[in-house]
Amino acid sequence: MTQIIATVILTALFVVGCSQGPSYSDFLLKAESQIYQHPDSIFLALQHIESERDSMTAEADRALYDLLYVEALHHCGLSTTYEPRITASHDFFERVGDRQRMARTALHHAIIRYQKGESQTAVQQLKQVESLADDLAEPTLDWYLFSVLGDVNDNIGNSELTLHYYRKSLDAANRCGNVEWQARSLNNIAQIFSKLHEADSVRHYVTLAKPIILQTADETQASYLVNRAICELADNNVEAAKQLLLNSNNRYPTDHAARLLANIYGNEGDTLRAIREWYQLTTSLSADVRIEAHQVLIGHLKRTNDTKRALEYSQRLNEFLHYLYTDKDRDALSKIQSQYDEQLLEKRQYRITIMLLSAIIVLVALAIAIVWYNRRRIDRLNTQFVENQQKYAVTRDELAKMRQEKEREERDNSRLIKDIVAQLHSLANHAKPADDETMNSLAQHTFSLYPELQILLSQLNIREQNITLLIRHNFLPTEIAVLINATPQSITNTRTRLLKRLFNADGGAKDFDTRIRDY
User: Fold this and answer.
1) Residue 472 has what pLDDT?
2) What does the pLDDT look like over 300-348, one tens digit per residue?
3) What is the largest distance, in Å, between two alpha-carbon atoms of the chain?
4) Is the dihedral of CA 136, 142, 146, 149 positive or negative?
5) Of 193, 191, 185, 173, which Cα lies nearest the Cα of 209?
6) Which one-letter DSSP state was computed for residue 486?
7) Per-domain boundaries in the chain
8) 286 vs 303, which has greater pLDDT?
9) What is the pTM of this model?
10) Which of 133, 132, 164 is closest to 147 using CA atoms?
11) Residue pair 475/483 in contact by the 8 Å Cβ criterion
């Protein structure tokens, strides 16, 4: 209802604004003033008038509309690879000397490039925006820019620069007086100190966030609770840490919380729960977490003499490592290193030749000719050496781009699954059935991560597949009954029947649940 009202109000302001002259319409100016606070509503309002965009007579309105559209997308956590409009907006604002909006278009253009895997170009552009932002004194722009730069450096493991930019984002959030941004920046800084194993620093920033955290969104509160749990673990208060992590997962599940819980369960001897958490983390967006999860599971399966599944997870781990570094990557790196070794060997041979020739003083003329020849040779070798160094740099950058792109695709897919699961839980909690589109999306993204599961379920009808997928994602039978318009008893009967059909095993519904979650 709120979004509908916002759409109507903004549309009315647009009509009034367009009738007042060629300057920015009141609609767009109003939308711009709310873009950080209500990006969802602004995005809906902009979509509502998308068909009118091309008919806007003022170039200024089209430029501002395109900027706001991309900004709203990014602030809503969405992405786009469509550049022409944002590029045209940047050119317009640069032409009219609107440096503030020019900086914003450049920032979001850089984000688009980063999402496309053009990391070097994107970072160069972000640094240009940072230079421009120094003169603008716009704290809202600063907060978003520094948060993006912090995230970029966190992705490449540069903790020093990550802390530098997260601290600058915190300063900008304080200047804005935005509680949500302050808490997010404090959480980000605490998480980096957690990675650096500096518990006192984590505790300091958790203390700073405590007075304002209840005024923030669930995701921000969940991150705060994880940071508090880290402090409790540093003080050996394991039970308190566990409760905080469970509370965090209830608000907004994260891999960070799941990893800490898995370690706690393992230390407590609760192997079943620990292994269940590690199973979930085998699809983590973080390569380090995913590798650790596979290693822990392989060790557990070996200890329990489940050699078949240990081999299966070993193969999955090898495939993932191969996915990070393909044979093509290895061949390229080997070739570059081989060429580098050959060049060094040739340089050594050249030095020996020079030393021998320098001893033949009486053959001055010949020595001069040989020196001249070898100088040309070394120039050629140096040129070739530089070229190969450049090829090495290009290949290394391409490998990094490929790895980042694959990680981003994996991260996007996993995040979509989490969003769909959260949406289905919400529908179940409100006693509403799931629509076909949502269930199809859950199946599509789940099968993309687990192709072997798709093969197993191919023999089932749609209803049976939906039940199986919901069980796989830890839905309760009562929730499943609501989502597919069935009774809990029919769900139980179906699970028992599918145990025999899929696994040729006898047992109850819970046995089927265990089998399908472990598959």
Assistant:
1) 92
2) 888 888 888 888 888 888 877 765 544 443 343 234 323 433 543 565 5
3) 105
4) negative
5) 185
6) -
7) 177-281, 327-421, 433-518
8) 303
9) 0.55
10) 164
11) yes
CATH fold for domain 433-518 = Arc Repressor Mutant, subunit A (1.10.10)
Residues 337-364 as b/e (b if ≥16 CB within 10 A, e otherwise) read: eebeeeeeeeeeeeeeeeeebeeeeeee
Q: Which residues are CB-contacts of 182 (< 8 A; sequence separation ≥ 6)?
A: 170, 173, 174, 209, 212
Complete DSSP assignment for 328-395: HHHHHHHHHHHHHHHHHHHHHHHHHHHHHHHH--S-HHHHHHHHHHHHHHHHHHHHHHHHHHHHHHHH
Q: In CATH terms, are 177-281 and 433-518 the same topology? A: no
Task: With cut-offs at 50, 70 and 90, classify the pLDDT of residue 9.
Answer: very low
Q: What residue type is assigned to position 379 of the chain? A: D
Residues 6+ apart with CB under 8 A from 474: 517
Q: Side chain identity at 271, as an amino acid letter?
A: T
| Integer angstrom CA distances of residue 407 from 55, 162, 401, 414, 442 | 40, 19, 10, 10, 20
DSSP state of 435: P
pLDDT in tens, 379-434: 888 888 888 788 877 878 888 788 888 778 778 778 888 999 999 999 999 999 99
DSSP for residue 326: -
> Could you give the CA distance from residue 98 to residue 94 in angstroms, rounded to a whole number?
6
CA separation for the pair 160, 170 (Å, rounded): 16
pLDDT band at 375 (very low <50, low <70, confident <90, very high): confident
Task: Please name the amino acid found at residue 372.
Answer: W
Q: What is the C-alpha to C-alpha distance for residues 196 and 180, in angstroms, rounded to an integer? A: 25
Query: CA-to-CA distance for 231 and 207, rounded, in angstroms?
Result: 10
Contact at 8 Å (CB) between 283 and 289?
no
**CATH class of the region 177-281:** mainly alpha
In the structure encoding, which two tokens stand for residue 198, read together?
């500096």
Mark out the alpha helices in 360-487 (DSSP H runs). 364-429, 436-449, 451-457, 462-472, 477-483
